[in-house]
């Protein structure tokens, strides 16, 4: 469950970056190429910053599954 939350956070960050880039390239067409280069770097940064939390969430989910072999849930 925690991994799903982290994945949603990463995908929300990417979606916001793409939305901002689309608005910026529409507002200033002369810099369209530069806007998308910067957006690519921002998306890469979002992905890299999400690795640590994703690994911690996966470890916590694994530990919870090991502690509760019956799979009672995330309650």
Question: What does this molecule look like?
Answer:
- The protein has helices at 2-27, 32-67.
- The chain is mainly alpha-helical and 75 residues long.
- α1 packs antiparallel against α2.
Q: What key phrases describe this protein's structure?
A:
mainly alpha, 75 residues
Write the layout of secondary structure elements.
Elements: H1 2-27, H2 32-67
Helix pairs in contact: 1-2
Could you tell me the mean pLDDT?
A: 92
How many β-strands, per DSSP? 0
Note the beta-strand portion: under 5%
- Provide the gyration radius in Å: 18 Å
SSE-based structural type: mainly alpha
Q: How many H/I helical runs?
A: 2
Approximate shape: elongated
Distance between the termini: 11 Å
| Main sheet properties | none
Helix content: over 70%
Helix-strand pattern, N to C?
HH
Which parts are unreliable, with pLDDT below 50 for 5 consecutive residues or more? none
State the gist of this model.
This protein has 75 residues and is an all-alpha fold. Helix 1 runs antiparallel to helix 2. It is built from 2 helices and no strands.
């Amino acid at each position: 469950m925690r991994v799903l939350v982290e994945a949603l956070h990463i995908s929300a960050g990417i979606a916001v970056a793409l939305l901002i880039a689309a608005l910026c390239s529409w507002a200033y067409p002369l810099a369209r190429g530069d806007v998308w280069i910067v957006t690519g770097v921002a998306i890469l940064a979002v992905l890299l910053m999400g690795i640590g939390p994703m690994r911690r969430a996966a470890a916590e989910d694994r530990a919870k599954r090991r502690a509760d072999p019956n799979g009672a849930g995330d309650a």
